[in-house]
């Protein structure tokens, strides 16, 4: 009996092929066709998000531990953005004399820091992909860990802005490499049913780190306003914790299979899924193998076997989708509210800018918890699109405040808009990590993640130079009107998100491969039936019927 054919233009073609044949032979034929397309059932497709987390407790815990790395990233980025408002820091690294006779940081110095940092962050994002693909995800983690440790040591020893620049170079490289390594790693080891939530936990830790940086600075501002070194020292604790976690984490089984290290993949799977009753390790290896073999066959057919295949055919679209939410962040005011948050409120005339930053960060943590809960319920697409749209409305609101008389009411409204803008960005940012990690094919994951992150950075470099001039009262003095600039930049990117972002919730890598190969429109992914979904439906309707992958090839392994 012929296998059902997939109609690229009609998503229901699979279902019609199923309906035209009998259940027993049909299920076997459909499963055989699915295997040829790199798909098969794991047996856990019907678990809910929290059932998945509970079933695979060790694997979920490992994802959670891996995401703690983001705390160091968020802490360092927030610390470097906010410490410039510390009087002692300005006195140590200032090169100009302000109107009050005190040393102040020159906009040119802040622009150098703001541009060189993203430049080396981009280098880290792009270069780590080759390390990760050649030597493994775990070795890549230790590689960037060394640069992060070196950056903190350099920060502690620096006493002029040029030496501090070196620490920015090292830290930015490490942060960029981390961004392109850890979320894709989590995507590779996470169970499909809870993958979105486990990836977005990375954002939770990022926000947590971003929250504690201004808290540390706020404490110093009350007890020892000129003390800028103590917050720097606190980074050693985070770097030390990262080292312990990286020792515990196993290598990605998907990477092992892709490199032909089957025995190592089995060993890591046994560690990740320890305690899961009747878990079929051989079958799970089989799922990885058939997916990677299918991707390689497609790549050979399209002559896209090298790393630059991310720029070719449907993989080019997958790369654009991976980068889009991150790219949009830059155009909706990331540099204003996040990069220079405290400085922005300070220049806007808020009496206690540190406190406002702490308030917005605390609310961000709560919002992130909600988003993690919703990640595999509502999906990534709606979270990203609605969150980014919210940011645009808040930009308009803040822009209006910039052209009306300043007073207590306008200051309070500024805080309200800043809070909701931050919530919108959290929605965008959490989803962005998911899209960077999930959208690409398995064989190109590290390269796609690296390029998607790296593509965004040149924009950050330009805005890193411009934003201090926009906000500085002694330069362009745009103040709150800066948000009109980002309203104009961000609107087309926000509109495009609604048409460009697919829904990846509950889809395996093999299912996403199928949808892209069938050239389904991204906004129709969630309405399209895949081979795996058809298999699940038929298996549920006819549980006594065996499929191809059930027959005599994958016995249980303890």
Structure description:
The chain is mostly helical and about 550 residues long. The chain is built from 25 helices and two strands. It has helices spanning about 15-20, 25-35, 50-55, 55-65, 70-80, 85-95, 105-135, 135-155, 160-190, 195-225, 230-235, 235-250, 255-260, 260-270, 280-300, 315-330, 335-340, 340-345, 355-375, 380-400, 410-440, 445-470, 480-500, 510-515, 530-540; strands at about 95, 105. It has a two-stranded antiparallel sheet. Helix 19 (about 355-375) packs parallel to helix 21 (about 410-440).
Helix-strand makeup class: mainly alpha
List unreliable stretches of 5+ residues.
1-25, 550-558
The coarse silhouette is globular
Beta-sheet strand percentage?
Answer: under 5%
What can be said about the biggest beta sheet?
2 strands, antiparallel
Question: From N to C, what is the helix and strand string?
Answer: HHHHHHEEHHHHHHHHHHHHHHHHHHH
Helix segment count? 25
**Number of DSSP E strands:** 2
Q: Output the radius of gyration.
A: 25 Å
């Amino acid at each position: 009996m012929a296998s059902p054919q997939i109609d690229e233009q009609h998503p229901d073609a699979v279902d019609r092929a199923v309906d035209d044949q009998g259940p027993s032979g049909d299920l076997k034929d459909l499963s055989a066709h699915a295997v040829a397309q790199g798909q098969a059932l794991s047996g856990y497709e019907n678990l809910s998000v929290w059932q998945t987390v509970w079933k695979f407790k060790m694997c979920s815990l490992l994802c959670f531990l891996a995401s703690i790395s983001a705390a160091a990233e968020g802490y360092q980025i927030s610390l470097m953005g906010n410490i410039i408002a510390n009087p002692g820091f300005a006195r140590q690294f200032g090169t100009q004399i302000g109107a009050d006779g005190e040393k102040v940081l020159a906009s040119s110095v802040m622009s150098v820091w703001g541009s060189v940092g993203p430049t080396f962050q981009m280098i880290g994002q792009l270069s780590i992909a080759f390390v990760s693909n050649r030597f493994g995800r775990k070795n890549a983690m230790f590689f960037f860990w060394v640069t992060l440790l070196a950056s903190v040591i350099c920060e502690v020893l620096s006493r002029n802005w040029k030496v501090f620049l070196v620490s920015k170079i090292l830290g930015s490289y490490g942060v960029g490499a981390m961004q392109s390594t850890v979320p894709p790693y989590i995507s590779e080891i996470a169970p499909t049913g809870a993958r979105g939530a486990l990836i977005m936990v990375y954002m939770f830790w990022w926000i947590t780190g971003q929250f504690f940086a201004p808290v540390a600075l706020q404490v110093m501002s009350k007890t020892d306003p000129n003390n800028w070194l103590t917050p720097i020292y606190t980074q050693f604790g985070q770097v030390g914790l990262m080292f312990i976690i990286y020792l515990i984490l196993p290598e990605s089984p998907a990477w092992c299979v892709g490199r032909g290290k089957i025995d190592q993949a089995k060993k890591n799977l046994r560690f990740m899924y320890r305690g899961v009753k009747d878990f079929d390790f051989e079958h799970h290896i089989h799922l990885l193998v058939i997916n990677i073999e299918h991707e390689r066959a497609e790549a050979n057919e399209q002559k896209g076997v090298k790393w630059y295949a991310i720029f070719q055919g449907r993989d080019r679209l997958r790369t654009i989708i991976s980068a889009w939410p991150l790219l949009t962040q830059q155009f909706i005011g990331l540099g204003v509210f996040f990069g220079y948050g405290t400085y922005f409120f300070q220049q806007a005339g808020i009496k206690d800018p540190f406190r406002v930053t702490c308030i917005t960060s605390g609310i961000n943590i709560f919002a992130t918890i909600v988003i993690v809960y919703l990640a595999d319920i509502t999906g990534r697409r709606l979270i990203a699109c609605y969150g980014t749209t919210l940011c645009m409305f808040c930009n308009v609101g803040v822009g209006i405040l910039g052209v009306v008389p300043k007073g207590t009411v306008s200051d309070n409204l500024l805080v309200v808009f800043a809070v909701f803008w931050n919530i919108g960005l959290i929605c965008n940012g959490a989803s962005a990590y998911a899209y960077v990690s999930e959208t690409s094919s398995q064989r190109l994951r590290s390269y796609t993640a690296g390029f998607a992150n790296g593509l965004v950075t040149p924009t950050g470099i330009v805005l890193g130079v411009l934003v201090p001039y926009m906000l500085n009262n002694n330069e362009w003095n745009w103040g709150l009107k800066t948000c009109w600039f980002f309203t104009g930049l961000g609107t087309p990117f926000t509109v495009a998100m609604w048409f460009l972002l697919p829904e990846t919730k509950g889809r395996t890598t093999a299912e996403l491969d199928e949808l892209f190969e069938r050239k389904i429109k991204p906004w129709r992914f969630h309405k399209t039936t895949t081979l795996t979904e058809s298999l699940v439906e038929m298996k549920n309707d006819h549980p006594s019927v065996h499929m191809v992958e059930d027959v005599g090839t994958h016995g249980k392994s303890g």
